[in-house]
Amino acid sequence: DFYDFVSFRDGSAGALIGDVTDKGMPAALFMASARSVVRANVAASEDPQVALRLANHALCSEAPNGMFVTLLLMQLLDDGGGIRVANAGNNRPLLYRSAADEIADFGVTGLPLAIDPAFPYTMQEHRLQPGDFLLLYTDGLTDATDVQRDLFGRERLLAALWEVRRSGAEDIRQRLRLAVAAFIGAMPPYDDVTFVIACRT
Fold this sequence. Notes:
By secondary structure, the chain is α+β, with helices and mostly antiparallel strands. Helices cover 31% and strands 25% of the residues.
């Protein structure tokens, strides 16, 4: 699993989070390659949709042994809270809307990168209001496993977020880390626990 912070061609900031299939050295090498390809195409693009389409086309010719990568790319617009999100097979992010006091899935997801070079990725737009946040995460968060082999799961994730929904990004980060650590206990981690929080103050 990996995350990164990037800049688009117009200078706007962005964040991405992804997960490469398989484990070990081949997966690590492909992750490094995928990260470089995505960064290069973000820098050459005006929005996440175009960046994903270009990166996907390039990675389809580079992926070894049928490997692929799930990836979500978010752009922060310089217009007071605007975001754009394009999703290639990653978990849908969770959006907290402070005005409605609710947490819900945001956007749609598409095919992982490096499978179909012609896949038509789409993009969703939203405006974060003060107090809103967006949580990007990979399945290592919800698939964290305790000694009874139970999964941390979506409901525990939502419960942990609900407790700190009106807090800042650092408090949310700490709460999620503590919730996962308390749940797995002495169980060795099965997968990376990776997430990124975008919070409008």
